[in-house]
Amino acid sequence: MLPCYVVLDLETTGGNALHDRITEIAAVRVENGMETARWSTLVNPGVRIPPFIQSLTGINDAMVATAPSFDEVAKDLLEILDGAVFVAHNVRFDHGFVQNELARLDLAFKVKTLCTVRLSRKLYPQHKGHGLDAILQRHGLHTIARHRAMGDVEVVLQWLKVATQELGETTVQRMALELLQGSASVPPQLETAISDIPDTPGVYLFYGEGPLPLYIGKSVTMRTRVMSHFQSAAKVAREMRILTEIRRVEWIETAGELGALLLESRLVKEKQPVYNRQLRREKALCSWHLHESPGANPLLKLVQLDDLEPAQWGSLYGSYRSKRQATDALRLLADSHALCPQLLGLESGKGACFACQLGRCKGACTGRESLAMHHLRLQMALAQQRLQSWPHPGRVAIREYQEASGRTDIHVFEQWCHIATVNDPAELDSIGQSRLPLAFDLDTYRLLQKRLGLGSGHDASVFRLPATGDCAA
Which of 26, 264, 352, 416 has the fewest beta carbons closer than 10 A? Predict the structure, then answer.
């Protein structure tokens, strides 16, 4: 199949390479078609083996009690793998465990890998099942040691021999080399060909068995970013969970990064993928409104952003997902700037507030500090949290162009809200005249702050849209 490879299998205390440990290792080294080394050992994992794993593998705590620990067998493992391709059925699982065990010993581990599940998919695409049990049944193979490391290695070796006899050595070798050249990190159950994903800007969606996406992401190089998910799975718990469930990848191309960011934010809010957290729908966003009068009590009022016109957003401070989050943030601000919690509405009563009694308020509640000075200090403390006013008299558009694909996207905005994205400048006239309701989105606001703030007039890709007439695009 390949000039030099090692078929390896592990038994472990569970399926998480970050937390579970190895209980058994078996490996057979093949060079130029001939077996040159065979090695297996039980491994003391240093933790108890769960009852379910004991019943599955037949390996119990008593069997590994006197077995060597992984650090004692690491040298032997590295020797048998030296210069060879690491071959396993669902190689991501075995490679991930070996990589993490060696990392705990501060040992680097770089090796080419080949997954025989994916090889089976390429050699026998007419079949649906490609696990070891399916292969045993499909080819009439037998083993008396299923779910033991050397028993499973023997099954893989038998299957490689059968595949070579049925399809020819040239075919098996060619398919193995194709996998070796870039898809070794791909989950074995993935139905989407990685080569089909364009390495251009856009949004990618990971799907499992169900109709809703597991995860939605964006990148200016989608294929590269998707591969990075797969390659980091051995070290990142969330990536590992995604990769155990993923079945297919879908994607939507954009002309640039801005379009990808906008589309990602919208799709995450619409579809609510289970593994996306940062961009989920912001329900009932609220903000602090500062009263103009220094003598007002309270000085701040919590308002819902959806209840205000976009033109009023410039007089608001902060954006919060809940009243509790807003109150906690204001309380922290009061503590750090010696502001009066009573005047801010955080505390009821008259006379000296509790913070004043502790020396943490400068005494606006008792007259030691003027209300005007307290109001000014409050404004200064809130300054960095102030929602910026829309810096343009009307709608603006941002043009993005992707040279590789020839795609153009024009994104239209008003009052920090994304109105539409079009591909044809001729459509801008109707968009410029339309009056659609504006919905504030915190992610879009943050995204546009730098791009459409001061100085954006020097950006040739940004232009204003007139309310009527033709748009000079």
Answer: 352
Is residue 258 one of the residues assigned to a domain?
A: yes
Structure tokens at 224: 């590269």
- Catalytic choice (19, 127, 139, 147): 147
Neighbours of 319 (CB within 10 A): 20
CB count, 10 Å around CB of 91?
A: 24
3-state secondary structure (DSSP) of residue 310: helix
138 and 22 housed in the same domain = yes
CA atoms within 13 A on the CB side of 145: 13
Cis bond upstream, residue 298 (ω within 30): yes
Interval 265-285: pLDDT, tens? 889 988 989 888 766 555 668
Helix, strand or coil for residue 427? helix
The whole domain housing 299 covers 286-385
Whether 359 is covered by a domain: the verdict is yes
**Tokens matching residue 197:** 């994903």
Question: Rounded distance, CA 323 to CA 382, Å?
Answer: 17
- Catalytic (active site) residue 147: yes
> What digits encode the pLDDT tens for the residues 431-455?
756 666 677 777 788 888 877 654 4
